Amino acid sequence: MTTQRTARLAAVLALPVALALSGLTAAPALAGDKAYQINLKPLNNSGSQGTVMLSLNGNQLSVKIEADGLVPGQPHAQHLHGSTDGHDFQCPSASADTDGDGIINNTEATVHYGDINISLTTDGGTGPDSGLAVDRMPKADAQGHLSYERTIPVSQDVVEHIKDLHVVEHGIDPNGNKQYDFGAGKSELDPKLPQEATAPTNCGVVEGAAVGSIPVGGVETGGGSTESHEIPRALVGAGGLAFVAAAGAIVVGRRKRSTAAAEPAGRSAA
Ligand SMILES: [Cu+2]
Description:
Layout: H1 2-26, E1 34-42, E2 49-57, E3 60-68, E4 78-82, H2 106-113, E5 116-119, E6 146-153, H3 156-160, E7 165-170, H4 195-198, E8 200-205, H5 233-236, H6 242-255
Antiparallel strand pairs: 1-2, 1-8, 2-3, 3-6, 4-5, 4-7, 7-8
Protein name: CHRD domain-containing protein
Keywords: Membrane, Signal, Transmembrane, Transmembrane helix
Region (Disordered): 75-99
């Protein structure tokens, strides 16, 4: 009797506890919230690495970056590169240095990591046309550390394809004099800028988005590495920034051969 009642009592008591526990474990973060980690790995033997946390709350993208091994006291252009329309871009390997000058410049790397989708500026615009807005890019401290945090409204395309994007930081110092100089020549993007200021220093893909993975929504037909190097036509005419203009010229050249495809809508960030 007593043991039976105790057992029944225990069962009755256990039920809400079990429900509460399952409720706890089953409860996701806020509905629609997603978070992704990116590990930044060095390019161009920069030794620069870091960690990025991307979190989405609806159409608000929060970006947190902690990076080290950057050029001390210098601004570092940084972007989300890649595609929101099905192309599979990745961080470049050493073989991306097709002109063999020992540096993977941005044009060589863009074939692999895609065009700028979002410019990770400290304030103001975050579109691709802010790609080289160096006065609005974060600076590394005296130890070469960079901390960045910003929440950016993004398009639905970015929300749906966030795993197809990756973070790239730019600015290298191969001659180790702690500044951007012309030791490595002129930037192919703008001859007034040193190559050191625009070449990529690190790159990272969303963890779990393995090399060769199928992008969200599948691979577009004919999306080979060079063919897939595209930029919205609206940007090609924007002029202003050499970063975009240089990339645009290449695309326009390529596109003359094929009839233009429909432009992806809402591709750039607000
Ligand atoms: Cu970039």
